[in-house]
Design a protein that fits this description.
Blueprint: E1 26-32, H1 41-51, E2 52-61, E3 71-72, E4 79-80, H2 91-97, E5 101-109, H3 118-126, H4 155-172, E6 181-188
Parallel strand pairs: 1-2
Antiparallel strand pairs: 2-6, 3-4, 5-6
Helix pairs in contact: 3-4
């Protein structure tokens, strides 16, 4: 549960796909750094829409290439996106997820040119995605076990991973820069 104290704010813990609140319970729903983690995205957005009365503020990564920084779970052997991000967003996708709401303000934060390519992605997968994303605390999205760095890597895995990183480095100067995060203020469309 979130640990903070503000007057007239009560922190609660719950499931965004099954919010235990009545319809239109809140004047404003603020949802940041959540939707990129939710497999049942449409259900989560429907629930946010249901409990919001006047406005919704959404904050999510913008056009994230979730192939960059993938990891392989040492327990189940399956590939995970960085930080457990299973969804990619732009303005259109957010609008489609909230059809009864209109975008009244959009702002962008930060910038990145992080992108990879199919060859580097394949090479990193073959090498076992040995490099963890710094600060990643999220468990494996498949088996829910805590992610950990590989115990050991062979010379060929190290060589293949180095080749993938070099290829990404060579392409990075050609990658266009775009915002890192998007924040959108939505208001209910009057009927």
């Amino acid at each position: 549960m979130p640990q903070f104290q503000f007057d007239r704010v009560l922190p609660v813990q719950g499931d965004v796909t099954n919010l235990q609140f009545p319809d239109k319970q809140f004047d404003v729903v603020f949802c940041a750094e959540v939707l990129e983690h939710i497999p049942a995205l449409q259900k989560a957005c429907s629930e946010i829409s249901r409990v919001a009365r006047h406005a919704i503020v959404i904050g999510v990564p913008y056009l994230q290439d979730t192939r960059v920084g993938r990891t392989t779970c040492n327990r189940c052997g399956r590939t995970n996106p960085p930080w457990g991000h299973v969804n990619i967003f732009d303005e259109r996708k957010i609008g489609n997820l909230f059809p009864e709401w209109q975008n009244v303000k959009t702002s962008f934060v930060g910038s990145t040119n992080d992108r990879t390519n199919p060859i580097s992605t394949w090479l990193m997968d073959f090498a076992g995605n040995p490099y963890r994303v710094s600060g990643q605390d999220e468990p494996c999205i498949h088996c829910s076990k805590q992610m950990s760095p590989p115990i050991s890597r062979s010379f060929s895995q190290k060589f293949i991973a180095a080749a993938a990183l070099k290829l990404n480095w060579l392409q990075s100067s050609f990658n266009p820069t775009h915002p890192n995060w998007i924040h959108i203020l939505l208001q209910k469309i009057s009927s």
